[in-house]
Structure formats: structure tokens, C-alpha cells
Design a protein that fits this description.
- This protein is an alpha+beta fold.
- Helix content is 37%, strand content 17%.
- The chain has 4 helices and 6 strands; from the N terminus they run αβββαβαβαβ.
- It has a 4-stranded mixed β-sheet. A two-stranded antiparallel ribbon has the order 1-2.
- The longest helix is centred in the C-terminal third of the chain and has 21 residues, at 112-132.
């Protein structure tokens, strides 16, 4: 019985790969990278690596090739990694004519009102930094979702770290 399980798994993988290869989908590459370090905002010498999503430009309103900007607990200040991510975003936006919506998010801790305000502060901080890098204010909108749209579910430091973020949505 134990020797049949690996064979069954292999057959299932081949069948899945064959079925997936027959359907033509728009080009979308997603590389999910998990946070490094202690996940709780403490410094371990490693920054959180953002999830990178490359999306077909013909599909407006989806995530873009520059990843989220992550924040420390109870903070709207940009980290060094956040500033680097925004430099990539500004570089892309200098070559594109898209409108940008910046979504501010928080983890689940705090009241709804507090988290909505903190999410807005994060979105506004990102917008201001992009403007300093040359992105016209007329192309940028901000919105806050507070804790309402978590990237990761869970009540631990790892989930909270991934949920303290600003994300980007491009529109033509």
C-alpha cells in the first residue's frame, strides 16, 4: 500500500499539469516569498521580502509588478526596504501613464476606527514619497481598508507582519 501512494501522487501531478497546459490564460507570474526574520517587527538583520506579482497590463485593476510596502507595528514610517520598493514603483510609473490607487492596510489589532486611520496614514505616506520621486499627485489616489482585507489570515506575528502594508492598483 505504501508503494502505491507515490505513484498515485505522480499520476495526479501529471494529470493536473496536462489539464493546466491545455487552457490558455493571460501571462501572469506570481512569486510568493514568505517574510524573513522574526515576523514581529523586531530586527533580526533581515527585512521582510514583499510578495511580487507581475500582471498582464491588459487587465486593469490588478496588482502590479512592484510589491507591497510593509510597515512596522503601529507605524506609518517608511522602512529602508519600503523606500527601495517605492523607487521601483516610481521607475515603472515614469514609463507608464496609468493612474495609481494606493491601498492602506493594517493588522487586526486595534479598533476599527484606529486601523482605518492608520491605513490612511500609510497610504498617504506612500503617496507623498512617490510624489517626491516625481510621480504627479494627479495620478495618485489613496484609500484605506484598515484591517478589513488581510493578505494573510491568522493571529500571530507572521500574519500581522504581512498585513501591515500599502498595496498598489493601476488603472489605465
Amino acid at each position: 500500500m505504501l508503494t502505491r501512494a507515490p505513484i498515485a501522487v505522480a499520476v495526479l501531478l501529471v494529470a493536473t499539469a496536462t489539464a493546466c497546459s491545455k487552457t490558455k490564460k493571460p501571462t501572469t507570474t506570481t512569486t510568493a516569498v514568505t517574510p524573513m526574520g522574526d515576523g514581529g517587527g523586531g530586527r533580526t538583520g533581515k527585512d521582510v521580502v514583499p510578495e511580487v506579482r507581475q500582471t498582464d497590463p491588459a487587465r486593469p485593476g490588478e496588482r502590479v509588478s512592484f510589491g507591497p510596502v510593509y510597515f512596522e507595528f503601529d507605524s506609518a514610517l517608511l522602512t529602508e526596504a519600503g523606500r527601495a520598493e517605492l523607487a521601483r514603483a516610481a521607475d515603472y510609473l515614469a514609463r507608464a501613464s496609468d493612474q495609481l490607487t494606493i491601498e492602506g492596510h493594517t493588522d487586526e489589532r486595534g479598533t476599527t476606527e484606529y486601523n482605518l486611520a492608520l491605513g490612511q496614514q500609510r497610504a498617504t505616506t506612500v503617496a507623498a514619497y512617490l510624489q517626491r520621486l516625481g510621480v504627479p499627485a494627479a495620478r495618485i489616489e489613496t484609500i484605506t481598508y484598515g484591517e478589513e482585507r488581510p493578505a494573510v489570515t491568522g493571529g500571530d506575528d507572521g500574519a500581522w507582519t504581512r498585513n501591515r502594508r500599502a498595496e498598489f492598483v493601476l488603472r489605465p
